[in-house]
Specification:
homodimer; elongated; DNA-binding
DNA sequence: GTCTATAGGTGGATAGAC
DNA sequence: GTCTATCCACCTATAGAC
């Protein structure tokens, strides 16, 4: 389980850094920001994450593995595909309510400026999401609950782009309701 | 026509800065980057745009007014709503082909870190886009060429989120084809 | 593990000569 | 308008004491 066996302090650093990246971007925060909110010095942070690149990699890796776990948990729960998809969308909704955007959506924007390795992790995150979504869409269509003409993976990419974009716009207008409205339409479009 | 009556040098500065923001973000480039590609010094840039905030505001204002002009031109052209919508999507496609993302999509991610005034300009950009899209959607539905159940403005927001998100994802995978695939589905969904 | 201290670099910005 | 020179704040990162 990568991203888990770190020390407790390292986890708390990641918690603070994650929030900072989701609101200000990877190029929009510094070790000083983390140090201040944690009440420690910058040097102390470098002990846990020598370079900002190390911190960034750990950040995406943890975010990704957590998402994987949550997605797996959703599929194990009772209910059909539409319920599972709604639960998935609710994960994003929580982010919107908190005035953040998806960690990986943010990093995708900063793309070419990121330290080595982060873009690869990013792609893995999106790949995993698309794959999971495609699986849910497939199940739903097989059960006659979803209706869409194209391949599940293609539809998954539409959904992912829509959710990431909706988070960005909702935050820009300081209105999580915009996210709900848009994501609600996406689900409705799929109904058989 | 705001954003136009500047000197020619200022326009060239904006050209370079625009490309930099669309690839690296507002927090991901510096006056030094512009100076280098233009073959001038940083001090010279400060003559045209005293602060980075001034540059940023001019950037969004120009981008917005240019988009307004292009949107108006599209509506004046021959063809029905679906054609107009496709032309609009093609504007985004050009961005994707160039390995960029939408200037305002990028700035939306950086949101709270932007200099004063830029977020307001950003919202104006998105508002104008939604309004234009809603108008095209309305026309198309009135003509029996589009079919969608919700209010045109609501559908417009779905489309805008989808396009902005698709640009982000296409660039992350270095594959403009992802943008075409996603935007193509969006258009197909609307067909009556 | 966390601290103080500091190095080395880059950022935005200004003054003043040309 | 563009230049040189310079300032100061901030950033990432390291050394070494505790």
């Amino acid at each position: 389980m990568p991203g888990q066996p770190r020390t407790e302090t390292a986890q708390r650093i990641l918690d603070v850094a994650e929030k900072l990246v989701q609101t200000r971007g990877f190029n929009g925060f510094s070790y000083a920001d983390i140090a201040e909110t944690m009440g420690v010095t910058r040097a102390s942070l470098h002990y846990h994450f020598p370079g900002k690149g190390d911190l960034g990699l750990a950040l995406v890796a943890r975010y990704r593995s957590r998402f994987d776990l949550e997605c797996a948990a959703i599929r194990r729960r009772n209910g059909e595909a539409p319920r599972h998809l709604q639960d998935y969308i609710d994960l994003y909704h929580q982010v919107a309510l908190d005035g953040r955007v998806c960690l990986c959506g943010m990093l995708a924007a900063e793309g070419p400026t990121l330290p080595p390795g982060m873009q690869e992790e990013l792609r893995r995150f999106f790949d995993a999401n698309e794959f999971w979504l495609a699986s849910v869409l497939q199940s739903g269509r097989d059960a006659g609950l979803f209706a869409f003409p194209e391949a599940p993976l293609e539809r998954a990419r539409v959904l992912l782009a829509l959710l990431e974009g909706a988070l960005l716009l909702a935050r820009t207008f300081g209105d999580a309701g915009r996210f709900s409205a848009v994501s609600g339409r996406a689900l409705a479009d799929l109904e058989a």
